[in-house]
Amino acid sequence: MTQLTALLSVSDKTGILEFAQGLHALGARLLSTGGTAKLLAEAGLPVTEVAEHTGFPEMMDGRVKTLHPKIHGGLLARSDLPEHVAAMQQHGITRIDILAVNLYPFEATVAKPGCTLEDAIENIDIGGPAMVRSAAKNWKDVTVLTDAAQYAGVLAELKAQGRTSDKTRFAASVAAFNRIAQYDAAISNYLSALQDDGSKAEYPAQMNATFVKVQDLRYGENSHQTAALYRDLFPAPGSLVTGKQLQGKELSYNNIADADAAWECVKSFDAPACVIIKHANPCGVAVGVNPAEAYSKAFKTDPTSAFGGIIAFNREVDGAAAQLVAKQFVEVLMAPSFSAEALEIFKGKANVRLLQIALPPGGATPWLQGRNAGDSKRVGSGLLVQTADNHFLKREDLKVVTTLQPTEQQLDDLMFAWTVAQYVKSNAIVFCGGGMTLGVGAGQMSRIDSARIASIKADNAGLSLKGSAVASDAFFPFRDGLDVLADAGASCVIQPGGSMRDDEVIAAANERGIAMVLTGVRHFRH
What we know:
Layout: E1 5-10, H1 16-25, E2 29-32, H2 34-42, E3 48-49, H3 50-54, H4 69-76, H5 82-91, E4 98-102, H6 106-111, H7 117-122, H8 127-137, E5 143-145, H9 151-161, H10 166-191, E6 211-217, E7 227-232, E8 244-247, H11 253-266, E9 273-278, E10 281-287, H12 291-301, H13 303-306, E11 309-313, H14 319-325, E12 330-335, H15 340-347, E13 353-356, E14 374-379, E15 382-387, E16 399-400, H16 408-421, E17 429-433, E18 436-441, H17 447-460, E19 468-472, H18 479-488, E20 490-495, H19 502-512, E21 515-518
Parallel strand pairs: 1-2, 1-4, 2-3, 4-5, 11-12, 12-13, 19-20, 20-21
Antiparallel strand pairs: 6-7, 8-13, 9-10, 9-11, 14-15, 16-21, 17-18, 17-19
Helix pairs in contact: 4-8, 8-10, 12-14, 14-15, 17-18, 18-19
């Protein structure tokens, strides 16, 4: 068998020594550059430096070292073309069978506070991507590795059959081109955000997003639409896409959209909580001493809408909670974990999709760790981009504007209602009390209609709104919305304020004996 030649040139040295030792044991010739060559030599491995191989020294602080015909000819030559083979022989070019390269740490460099343009520029790799592209293009002859996780599998194939399979080489080629695309996107995003004064714009002149496909979906929002789920290249801990499906049918597009709404809402509570979502809106949210109590309270808000809903817990689902949930038709149930008893209960409901998702590190309080920093929405031939609605309201931020001051219990209920309102489609009105939702009005064209619907739903569920706390996701344009809440039995209201008729609305609250606090921040959710 012809001796293999491997070129190893890595910035991140993780696993490279062990890989080189494995290649050497198989009789491969090792080529390398700079620090990698030094590491291998110090370990006693016979290694030829690229400068010796090409007969051309490294220069310009290492900017020029692998940009040479003996390197790229060795990577690009096709073994099935006689003219390529002849050219190699004529010019003394040795075939390179394996290339292991990872790139200068551009992404990590620009992520550091105080990174200068000079630092960024010097961490733009040139030779590495050029070699990777050459090897990836010639995948039928060259195995190109851009991740240390690939080393063990390649060594195993080489030991078993003397060469890598076509399938392995092609997969490695695709991974290599993907890595180059990610790298170039990071460079473009960084450089196109720089302004003339050296500062960085919040949004780059060109935005290059990178997502990795998780799975194809059965269909989109409707059966005539196709769909797939993608994740961020490095998903945040505690986010939906990090979850593991334990049982049940394949998730649909709508399942995933609703599950994300449920998970984002439930993980924002410190106490044991349950959120029930239907068509992207919470139809029941509650906290309790345990998951079973939280579920029972959440279900009471709107039992009709809860049918076929998406349910999320921020605590382990135990047997008691599982027995209650199993009594209703549920599409998706998600939690940080499930007890053995709970799993046994749901074995009898094979179609129920169980998702296990770890909470963000540190529990529920630092819930922003698992959230997106940005948000986007497609419009005709374009993209709307914004920072995500990650505002976290603190009690000390509240401004009491009425004569009547809210009690401590009312403040607790108002904070609970405000948290829920953030996840309700605008216009949003949320009645709460005792750590549970009592009535939810969502997605109406007028705020007064949302208020009426919320009170009607509470009445239909047999829930009293007397003494309830109400959250409105945006200001009341007129006093009529406030009057509807008062007529329904509300005792206190939380809203952003900012209307030209704020004085009129506050006067109405004083007239009706309602305590009102302003947040100064609204939570539109379209």
